[in-house]
């Protein structure tokens, strides 16, 4: 039984968000995760881009068997797909491969080739945002691995927030982590990491829209380079 099942049936999820966001700001990561699991039970999932398995490692310690949604855009690096397969084999989680409504070939037939270069916002919407939205419909809440230090648009985010676009709760347990925190956790716990990180890709997206980053560059400068874009739209 979850905390939601013991509370009054008409309790508004937005009320839960407001009280939890205030109470859990600055709380230890595992405390945030335990609250979310106790509150939502099997109605919470985790999303992962398979850049690393740090959040998967953390959440699976509290809720083994949790659903992990991976959006397979059809444009991923082979290393990303390999990381997904390794995560499925190593961690006690249920990896769910989420795919767009059209294959890459079908999209190109309908909208022309290289949509990612001509209209990256539309491409991200069709191949990431829309499929994930469909996959999240069966849940009340989801865990995200965003951090405040990644982009300016994430600096004012909260550890628990109302995902108005999807009408559900979003939980960001590592929101306050720095890159040093992440690196230390990965090293201390032997967490699986996408091998592209060791080849100059600190932030990994789809292969056509991601380039290596030179030392000293912003870690996310390799994403949609030259296109004036910093977010795919999932976290907006």
Automatic annotation (TrEMBL):
Pathway the protein acts in: Sulfur metabolism; hydrogen sulfide biosynthesis; sulfite from sulfate
Superkingdom assignment: Bacteria
EC number(s) recorded for this UniProt protein: 1.8.4.10
Cofactor, how bound (note): Binds 1 [4Fe-4S] cluster per subunit.
Residues forming the catalytic site: 232
Domain Phosphoadenosine phosphosulphate reductase residue range list: 49-212
Pfam families: PAPS_reduct (PF01507)
PANTHER family, alphabetized: PHOSPHOADENOSINE PHOSPHOSULFATE REDUCTASE
Protein name: Adenosine 5'-phosphosulfate reductase
Biological source species: Actinomadura spongiicola
């Amino acid at each position: 039984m979850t905390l939601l099942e013991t509370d009054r049936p008409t309790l508004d999820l937005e009320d839960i968000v407001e009280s939890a966001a205030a109470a859990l700001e600055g709380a230890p990561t595992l405390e945030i995760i335990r609250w979310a699991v106790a509150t939502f039970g099997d109605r919470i999932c985790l999303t992962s881009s398979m850049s690393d398995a740090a959040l998967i490692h953390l959440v699976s310690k509290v809720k083994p068997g949790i659903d992990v949604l991976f959006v397979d855009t059809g444009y991923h690096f082979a290393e990303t797909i390999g990381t997904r397969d390794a995560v499925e084999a190593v961690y006690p989680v249920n990896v769910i491969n989420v795919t767009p409504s059209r294959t890459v070939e079908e999209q190109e037939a309908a909208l022309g080739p290289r949509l990612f270069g001509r209209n990256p916002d539309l491409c991200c919407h069709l191949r990431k945002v829309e499929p994930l939205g469909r996959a999240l419909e069966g849940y009340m809440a989801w865990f995200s691995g965003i951090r405040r230090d990644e982009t300016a648009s994430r600096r004012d985010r909260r550890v628990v927030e109302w995902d108005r676009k999807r009408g559900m709760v979003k939980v960001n347990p590592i929101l306050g982590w720095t890159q040093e925190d992440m690196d230390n956790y990965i090293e201390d716990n032997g967490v699986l990491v996408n091998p592209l990180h060791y080849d100059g890709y600190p932030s990994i997206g789809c292969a056509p829209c991601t380039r290596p980053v030179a030392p000293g560059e912003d870690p996310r400068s390799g994403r949609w380079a030259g296109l004036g874009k910093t977010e795919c739209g999932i976290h907006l």
